[in-house]
Amino acid sequence: MARTITIRNVPERVMRGLRDRARRNHRSMQKEVVSILEQQIVDRASMVKQLSALGARLKANMTIDEIHDAIDEGRP
Known about the structure:
Helix content: 55-70%
Structural class: mainly alpha
Strand content: under 5%
Number of strands: 0
């Protein structure tokens, strides 16, 4: 089921960038935002899965929270 969100106080430079990106991708700004959010969620889930598998192979005992922290810090 689709939900609605509202984002307030978006800086003008971000709005310009979003407009430009949406135009390049032949999408509305709304569809572009959804695409960006979906991509970020999928990428993060994929990274968590890959890091979990790597940790199992290396016999490392990283928790899911530690994996998310490593992603946030830009560590592989």
